[in-house]
Specification:
Blueprint: H1 3-30, H2 32-75, H3 82-88, E1 90-93, E2 113-116, H4 143-159, H5 164-169, H6 171-177, H7 182-214, H8 224-252, H9 256-285, H10 291-304, H11 312-327, H12 339-375, H13 382-393, H14 397-432, E3 438-440, E4 445-447, H15 450-453, H16 466-496
Antiparallel strand pairs: 1-2, 3-4
Helix pairs in contact: 1-7, 2-4, 2-7, 3-14, 4-7, 4-8, 4-9, 7-8, 8-9, 8-13, 8-16, 9-12, 10-12, 11-12, 12-14, 13-16
């Protein structure tokens, strides 16, 4: 064989694949199914993107205004004892995730703000779903839901008859008799169906982006461009999984109807049955307490001690006796430190151990449940995709836990700063009775002004980095990749065994 002939083979093959893809695309576009499925998909996707953009903009404005107002109230709460100011408290509001306009994730079911006060670590409050009706909670219209649920269905509707239909019409025999290789036929039909799907989805996303730009919604965050690229890669891979599975089943099925029923059944199993089943299985594998159990157990530990240890009050008494012995005095009034603020801070620190134990255990249980669900993605690719999508959007459990941890860190800083100021002022009063404010060691009163409360810096929330997100969901990407490789291999296997007619 000459070099010219060998060099021309890839060109002829590429030309054949383009011809098959063009023919497949034309047939799909002319089919009435394409018009109405494309119209429904386009309307829903554009509506979801626009609605998400409006929700994102409204939430961001509300969050920023609420945080500013809460900070102002804390700083200007009036002259009072600093510890009382810590009891007055402040709020921490969660910022919207960088891509939550596309995938709102768990935001509707997780609290959007935390009340920070002395002696108590609070759960995040006011999940938006609490204000919704039962029907409204069934599902949230967003771009992620449309692509996860309806994009596979669109691919199935457009591709189920690619091989089975050719066989039923008798044209498959003609194609194979013309010397078209089965691999070229597979790639050509995959390219044709994929182009038809892209004709529906890409213009919708572009139109949604234009509307989002018009609404002046500018998502931001750590490595926003990289997040968007990884998100696109995950959804493209998800679509290709269903594309090659549809082609494989179409090649294997005895008729287009059989192929359609088989793929629709698999689609329903993936997007409806498995998410619910995975959630229930994860709860059995890693149980989590109810709200009542969680709060009751935590409060009992605050009263009786953690893990059989001495109760906090008893530990405080031990600590007091140690201080009296250290300074060689008999009463707390003789201590060179201000016992009132010192004891309050010590109680706070003992509570930290209890709160950290219970909240970390709860977060670990929820994280373990989510990982079990992701692992079950070997049965349904939508499971790891859903976690990846929420993680890159900043609307997942990882971001929620990071926010509540940041709020707790701020709460501890606020209380420690107020108690520390109280101690310092009292010691200074003992030394020279020259204070800003009014301190009386007999009545334990210190009146602090606005400047004192401003010693507490404003709340700042730094969301997890892209590297942290990828570390958490790297296995999900691996599962999606395995699904894609497996679906392509299955398509090549079934098309390789393709027969012009059923036996």
């Amino acid at each position: 064989m000459s070099d010219t002939t060998m060099a021309g083979a890839p060109v002829r093959r590429a030309s054949m694949i383009r011809t098959i893809a063009s023919k497949e695309l034309k047939e799909i576009v002319r089919d009435g199914r394409f018009a109405w499925t494309a119209a429904i998909m386009a309307i829903l996707l554009i509506a979801a993107l626009v609605t998400g953009a409006e929700r994102y903009a409204g939430y961001r404005l509300t969050q920023e205004a609420s945080q500013a107002a809460s900070n102002s109230q804390f700083y200007s709460q009036g002259d009072k004892n600093p510890h009382s100011g810590a009891h007055y408290g402040n709020y921490a509001f969660k910022a919207a995730g960088p891509l939550s306009l596309f995938d709102s994730g768990i935001e509707a079911y997780a609290g959007s703000f935390v009340f920070m006060e002395a002696h108590k670590q609070n759960l995040a409050l006011s999940p938006p779903a609490g204000d919704l009706s039962a029907i409204a909670r069934f599902g949230d219209l967003n771009g992620a839901m449309i692509l996860q649920v309806l994009m596979p269905l669109l691919i199935i509707f457009l591709g189920f008859s690619t091989f089975a239909g050719e066989r039923e019409r008798g044209t498959l025999r003609q194609l194979l008799s013309m010397g078209v290789s089965k691999s070229d036929l597979l790639w050509g039909k995959a390219l044709g169906v994929g182009a038809a799907v892209a004709l529906v989805i890409v213009p919708c996303i572009v139109a949604g982006a234009v509307v989002i730009a018009f609404l002046k919604v500018t998502p931001s965050g750590d490595a926003f461009g990289a997040r968007l690229a990884l998100m696109s890669l995950a959804y493209i891979g998800y679509g290709l999984i269903f594309l090659f599975l549809t082609l494989a089943v179409s090649a294997l099925a005895s008729s287009p109807r059989t192929a359609l029923i088989g793929m629709v059944g698999f689609w329903a199993f993936c997007v409806f049955l498995m998410p619910k089943a995975a959630g229930e299985i994860s709860k059995v594998v890693h149980p989590s307490p109810s709200l009542g159990e969680f709060q009751t157990d935590m409060q009992m530990s605050r009263v009786k001690g953690l893990g059989g240890g001495p109760p906090p009050r008893a530990r405080l008494e031990i600590y007091k006796q140690q201080l009296l012995k250290k300074y060689g005095v008999k009463t707390t009034a003789e201590l060179p430190i201000y016992w009132v603020s010192t004891s309050m801070q010590k109680m706070e620190e003992m509570d930290h151990e209890i709160y950290s134990y219970y909240y970390n255990s709860l977060n670990d249980a929820y994280t373990a449940q989510r990982r079990v669900q992701d692992n079950l993605g070997v049965l349904a690719p939508v499971l790891p995709l859903s976690s990846i999508s929420m993680g890159l959007s900043g609307a997942d459990l990882l971001h929620q836990n990071t926010f509540t941890a940041a709020a707790e860190k701020q709460r501890r800083l606020m209380v420690e700063t107020m108690n520390g100021y109280l101690s310092k002022m009292a010691v200074d009063f003992n030394a020279n009775q020259a204070l800003t404010g009014n301190v009386s060691m007999e009545t334990n009163v210190l009146v602090a002004s606005e400047a004192v409360f401003k010693l507490v810096p404003p709340f700042r929330y730094e969301p997890p980095s892209l590297a942290a997100v990828m570390h958490e969901y790297g296995k999900g990407f691996a599962i999606l990749a395995a699904w894609l490789v497996g679906s392509i291999a299955l398509a090549f296997f079934t098309v390789g065994r393709l027969r012009p007619q059923t036996r």
